[in-house]
Amino acid sequence: GREPLPPTVGRNVLGRKVLYLPGFFTYARHIVEVDGKRGLFRGLTPRLISSTLSTITRGSVKKAFPLEDMEHVSNKDDVKTSLRKVVKETSHEMMMQCASRVVSHPLHVISMRCMVQFVGREVKYSGVLRAIGRIFKEEGILGFFVGLVPHILGDVIFLWCCNLLAHFINTYAVDDNFSQASVIRSYTKFVMGIAVSMLTYPFLLVGDLMAVNNCGLRAGLPPYAPAFASWIHCWRYLSAQ
C-alpha cells in the first residue's frame, strides 16, 4: 500500500515504543493541502447512488417477501422454536442484503476508483457515466463486479454470527428474573455487531482492494500493490504480510 505520511512514534498501553500511522484528521488535512476541500469528496456521487440503489433494492425485496409472513421471536417461545425463527429471520435479512449488494456494487467499484485516483493524480474515472463506459470497454461486464464475492461473504458471515450470537446470549446468558434483562437484550445485538465486524473486516478490505487492483490506476499497480489473480490471491498475500 501507499502511506503518504510517515508514522509517528508513541507508546502502547505497556509503555513500549511503537509506530502509529496518522489518524483521520491528519490524512484529511493532507488531502486538503494537496487537493483542496473538494478532495475530501472524491467518489461521493457514485457512493450516494450506490447507497440509494441499495436502499431501493432492500425495499423491493422486502415488498416481494413481506415481513408479515415471517415469525418473530417471542419470549414465550421454547428454545427450538426461537432458534428456528432466528434462522428464518436471518435468512430473510441475508436475502435482502445480498440482493442490495449485487445491485449497488458497480457504483461502489466506481466510487473506490474515484477515491484512489488521488494517489497518482489521475482523472481516468472522473464522472459516473464516463467511468461506466471506461470499465465496460476495458474490463467488460465483470469489471463492475470485481471484489463482490468477499463483500458478500463478509455480509453473510456478519449477519449470521451477529444474529446467532445475540440469540444464544439472550437465551442462555441473560436471566429472565433479572430486572434489567429486557434492557440488556436490546443492546446485545448492537454489541455483537461491533465484535463481529472485527471478524469480517478482512473480507471488506480484500473486496475494496480488488475493486481498484490492476485497473490502470497507480494505486492498484506495483509498487503500491501486486496484480492479484483473484481475491483469494489477495487474501493470501495480505495474510503473509
From TrEMBL:
Could you list the residue ranges that cross the membrane?
140-170, 190-212
Q: Which Pfam families match?
A: Mito_carr
* Membrane topology per record: Multi-pass membrane protein
Keyword presence, Mitochondrion: yes
**Lyase found in the keyword field:** no
What does the entry give for GO biological process? apoptotic process; positive regulation of apoptotic process
* Compartment(s) of residence: Mitochondrion outer membrane
Q: Which UniProt keywords apply?
A: Apoptosis, Membrane, Methylation, Mitochondrion, Mitochondrion outer membrane, Repeat, Transmembrane, Transmembrane helix, Transport
Repeat (Solcar) positions are 84-172
Gene3D superfamilies named among the record's database cross-references? Mitochondrial carrier domain
Q: Which GO terms describe its cellular component?
A: mitochondrial outer membrane
Q: What is its main location?
A: mitochondrion
The role this protein plays is:
Protein insertase that mediates insertion of transmembrane proteins into the mitochondrial outer membrane. Catalyzes insertion of proteins with alpha-helical transmembrane regions, such as signal-anchored, tail-anchored and multi-pass membrane proteins. Does not mediate insertion of beta-barrel transmembrane proteins. May play a role in apoptosis.
Subunit relationships: Interacts with PSEN1.
* Family, per entry: Belongs to the mitochondrial carrier (TC 2.A.29) family.
What is the name of the protein in this document? Mitochondrial carrier homolog 1
- In which organism is this protein found? Opisthocomus hoazin (Hoatzin)
